[in-house]
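Structure catalogue
Derive tokens from sequence
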Amino acid sequence: MIQELLKDKKKIGILSILVIVIIAFGILYLKSGFKELKKNDKESIFVDDIENTDKSAVTSNNNMKNNSNSTKNKEVTVPIKDKSIVVEIKGEVKKPDVYTLDENAIVKELIEAAGGLTENADLNNINRAKKLQNHELVYIANKNGINKEGTTKNSELNTSNSQVTSNNIVNINTATIEQLKTLNGVGDSKAKSIIEYREQSGGFKSIEDIKNVNGIGEKMFEKIKEQIEI
């Protein structure tokens, strides 16, 4: 009877030890699994934070690059003020006066600004496509040889020539053929060449430019340079 009890106690003890061992292993297993899970959670959060930070940095860099590129590509527009010239027109126009026009204006535009031509206007010596110069005077002659003051063209030219002779200076940008002929060595042919050149080139920029006129060289320029201006 006692022996049977001892055997039963041994069995119970062995079973108890096995149960304790199993419980111990179970506890260890649960703890290790919980630590691993917690580790994974931390790693996951850490990785997400890095990725979010990297994405924010990349976005910020891209925005900075885009702003920089847009600044470089942006053109600065500076408004350019329109330049103007002041010119006078006399003779056979409806409203002879001094007018302010665009710097690229031509004689035709000046005539239009002056109300147009009268019925007695003579355009034989007028190039309406010629570009105007600042402070230039344009005179539209009368086809009958009479100006608005009642004097003839010849008397007007004689008066003009006397003024040129007394002043001894001729504006080669505005002078008539008769005025140009007062210059030393300049006749009809050279005077016409001077007028043709200034009409084609838009006027003389300096008195030295007159040397570009056909028939006028360095020697003639030396003779007339004290008599001319622009």
Observations:
- Strands lie at 84-91, 97-102, 121-122, 137-142, 170-171, 228-229.
- Residues 148-166 have pLDDT under 50 and may be disordered.
